[in-house]
């Protein structure tokens, strides 16, 4: 019997490696739009965050999305993502 490999991803906030299914995917689409990907299956470049506001704040402070997407992410996008993360946390 073979053991199924669990995909791990690194959080851009805290830097911890965790199970992909436990993380929230932030996505840059081909058009350059940045959105939360709840399904984890949309096309585009993805970066992963733990589902905690602490990790989001760390990523915002260290400009983790800028590094992951190799572009400057506007402050409005961080604000919109913060609201979406709060909504996601309530569900």
Summarize the topology.
Elements: E1 8-10, E2 17-19, E3 24-28, E4 34-37, E5 45-49, H1 53-62, H2 64-69, H3 75-90
Antiparallel strand pairs: 1-2, 3-4, 3-5
Structure description:
- Strand 3 and strand 4 form a beta hairpin.
- The longest helix has 16 residues, at 75-90.
- The protein has three helices and five strands.
- The chain starts with 7 loop residues before the first strand and ends with a helix.
- The protein is α+β, with helices and mostly antiparallel strands and 91 residues long.
- It is globular and about 50 Å long.
- The protein has helices at 53-62, 64-69, 75-90; strands spanning 8-10, 17-19, 24-28, 34-37, 45-49.
- Helices cover 35% and strands 22% of the residues.
- It has a three-stranded antiparallel β-sheet. A two-stranded antiparallel ribbon has the order 1-2.
């Amino acid at each position: 019997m073979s053991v199924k490999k669990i995909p791990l991803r690194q959080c851009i906030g805290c830097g911890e490696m965790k199970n992909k299914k436990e993380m929230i995917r932030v996505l840059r689409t081909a058009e350059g739009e940045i959105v939360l990907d709840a399904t984890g299956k949309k096309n585009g470049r993805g970066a992963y965050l733990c589902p905690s506001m602490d990790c989001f704040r760390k990523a915002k402070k260290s400009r983790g999305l800028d590094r992951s997407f190799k572009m400057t992410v506007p402050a409005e996008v961080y604000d919109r993502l913060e609201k979406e993360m709060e909504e996601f946390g309530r569900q």
